């Protein structure tokens, strides 16, 4: 086995007099993809900062291969001191790195390189920081919540980009789909210590539940009640996993009903069929449109939302998701078409309650409104302490002021308030933002139990797969379409994901070649001999790379190769990756030269 590029051993750290890390370990070898998981506050970001050399540990050792290159993406990147985003990205590159890649990545991420870092939004700053750590193609990438503030097109682009890199990864994320698709190893940070699973995140939760069950059996004789309470507070969601099997079956039935409804309704001009049970129709929109200035946000969109539908809305940032939601709920007047809200619809929104939390209000008062120890959920009274425990709060926190809650705890409180409001139509705009994996599990369960109708805007693909019965997706020029099923079902039917990111023109040719091509201001410009030769010979080189990849594919198609000869398998894999990278580089160079030739021959 190859020696690790990064090895943290027996790491200890105390913050505020309380041990945060106590014997934590992590080891990363060449090309290894590691998911670092654990509940909020467990010390994941701190451990990653120790790995990056950002903070010092109290005890333990940190080892990096001397010649290994490392790049670290913090949750809050600092772009101060740089005139442009390009300057910021280029500052993170080494002497041998390709400057051309810096501009290429910025443009792929929707930036030009000329932006003033001081004026960037959170999402734009995150994109610039991603370009900075990706541009050098380092040996080790340490990524702390890389999808924060990103929309679906960029998240899906990032996943493909990370998959194509040869860099080793240590990844902290609340995006289950990203963790599942990228990771091959999972490191669980729990109570200051780490446990390693040599499988990806997709198998982590079942393994974690098994570990917890074993711990409970081992500690049963000591104090079963304490174990139960601690398990509930820390892992209350996972204990309900068996119930979710039935829920998934119910979701399948709902999606089937939605699919049959779409076969009848589709995207046609709706003619409402009367005779349904009173209250079954929640929203009916017929050929609605909305334009702001010269831009059409929604164009001739029709939909019928029925009771118990779970509708997800997806699209790139700026596509108009929130505008569409406001039109469907009557909060924004349509330019044309009609919107009908069904009888007895009682609507509640997550956003309606976000700004109403006074900092000095206690957690208990925020849930009950004060003057009572009970909340009413679906017509049933429930003690506030029991309701708090449903959202992973401890009884001791009932008198805690809102100002002292963490960001994740405030998210849970906001969610608890929204779900406590009397409603049969719940509208949630980005409900998964800043929630950890345990809270996402909880939200999924609460929404599954919710007896009414859901309208959800989200960029979390896994969450939509678990909750939605149909997806509304943004198409071009203000068009919107509905697909039955979750996000993955939509991609399968549509043939692609959200992908609404603007297609940018190809980056300019590398500086050396560009200067040779435009060095003269004479009216008649010509390609250099080197450029002409490359334009003629690159197609043959590309054919050779393709032939090499085809041969290697035949070698790797042997399912017994790894068991029979691991070294040969590893060599074939590396040779294939090398040929693939060379082909991509040659194709890109040929394309740039061909564009230059067409421009000069004009």
The value of Rg in angstroms is: 27 Å
Do you know the CATH architecture of the largest domain? 3-Layer(aba) Sandwich
For the termini, the CA-CA separation is 56 Å
Domains (count): 4
Strand content: 15-25%
CATH fold node name of the largest domain: Rossmann fold
Mean pLDDT: 81
Q: What is the CATH level 1 assignment of the largest domain?
A: Alpha Beta
- Total of helices: 19
Taken from the alpha-carbon principal axes, the silhouette is globular
Helical proportion? 40-55%
Strand order of the largest sheet: 5-6-7-3-8-9
Low-confidence stretches: 265-278, 500-524
User: Structural class of the helix and strand makeup?
Assistant: alpha/beta
- Write out the CATH superfamily name of the largest domain: P-loop containing nucleotide triphosphate hydrolases
Q: How many individual β-strands? A: 20
Query: Largest sheet, described in full?
Result: 6 strands, mixed
């Amino acid at each position: 086995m190859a020696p690790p590029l990064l090895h943290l051993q027996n790491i200890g750290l105390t913050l505020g007099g309380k041990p945060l890390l106590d014997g934590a370990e992590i080891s990363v070898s060449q090309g290894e993809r590691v998911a670092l998981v654990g509940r909020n506050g467990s010390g994941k970001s701190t451990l990653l900062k120790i790995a990056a050399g950002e903070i010092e540990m109290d005890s333990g050792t940190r080892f990096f291969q001397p010649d290994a290159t490392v790049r670290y993406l913090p949750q809050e990147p600092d772009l101060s001191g740089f005139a442009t985003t390009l300057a910021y990205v280029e500052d993170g590159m080494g002497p041998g790195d390709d400057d051309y890649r810096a501009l290429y990545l910025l443009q792929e991420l929707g930036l030009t390189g000329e932006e003033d870092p001081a004026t960037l939004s959170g999402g734009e700053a995150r994109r610039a920081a991603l370009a900075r750590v990706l541009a050098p193609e380092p040996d080790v990438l340490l990524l702390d919540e890389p999808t924060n503030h990103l929309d679906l097109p960029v998240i899906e682009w990032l996943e493909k980009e990370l998959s194509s890199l040869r860099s080793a990864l240590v990844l902290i994320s609340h995006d289950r789909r990203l963790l599942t698709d990228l990771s091959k190893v999972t490191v669980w940070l729990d109570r200051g210590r780490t446990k390693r699973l040599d499988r990806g995140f997709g198998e982590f939760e079942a393994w974690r539940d098994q570990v917890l069950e074993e711990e409970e059996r081992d500690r049963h004789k000591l104090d079963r009640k304490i174990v139960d309470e601690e398990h509930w507070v820390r892992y209350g969601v996972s204990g309900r996993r068996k119930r979710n099997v039935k829920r998934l079956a119910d979701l399948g039935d709902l999606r089937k009903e939605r699919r049959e409804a779409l076969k009848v309704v589709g995207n046609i001009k709706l003619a409402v069929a009367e005779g349904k049970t009173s209250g079954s129709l929640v929203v009916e929109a017929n050929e609605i449109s909305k334009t702001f200035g010269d831009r059409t946000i929604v164009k001739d969109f029709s939909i019928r939302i029925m009771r118990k539908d779970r509708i997800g809305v997806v699209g790139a940032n700026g596509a108009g998701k929130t505008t569409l939601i406001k039109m469907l709920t009557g909060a924004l007047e349509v330019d044309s078409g009609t919107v009908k809200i069904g009888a007895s619809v009682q609507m509640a929104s997550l956003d309606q309650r976000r700004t109403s939390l006074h900092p000095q209000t206690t957690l208990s008062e925020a849930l009950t409104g004060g003057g009572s120890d009970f909340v009413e959920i679906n017509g049933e009274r429930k003690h506030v302490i029991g309701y708090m425990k449903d959202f992973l709060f401890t009884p001791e926190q009932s008198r805690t002021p809102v100002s002292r809650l963490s960001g994740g705890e405030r998210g849970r409180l906001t969610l608890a308030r929204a779900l406590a409001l009397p409603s049969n139509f719940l509208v949630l705009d980005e409900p998964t933002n800043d929630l950890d994996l345990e809270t996402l599990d909880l939200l999924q369960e609460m929404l599954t139990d919710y007896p009414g109708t859901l309208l959800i805007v989200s960029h979390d693909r896994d969450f939509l797969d678990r909750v939605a019965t149909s997806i509304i997706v943004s198409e071009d020029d203000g068009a919107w379409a509905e697909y039955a099923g979750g996000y993955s079902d939509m991609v399968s039917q549509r043939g692609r994901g959200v992908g609404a990111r603007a297609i940018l023109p190809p980056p300019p040719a590398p500086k050396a070649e560009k200067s040779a091509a435009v060095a003269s201001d004479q009216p008649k410009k010509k390609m250099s001999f080197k450029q002409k030769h490359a334009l003629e010979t690159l197609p043959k080189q590309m054919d050779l790379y393709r032939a090499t990849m085809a041969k290697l594919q035949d070698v790797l198609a042997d399912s017994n190769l790894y068991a029979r000869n691991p070294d040969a398998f590893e060599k074939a894999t590396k040779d294939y990756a090398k040929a693939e990278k060379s082909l991509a580089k040659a194709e890109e160079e040929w394309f740039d030269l061909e564009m230059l030739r067409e421009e000069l021959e004009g």
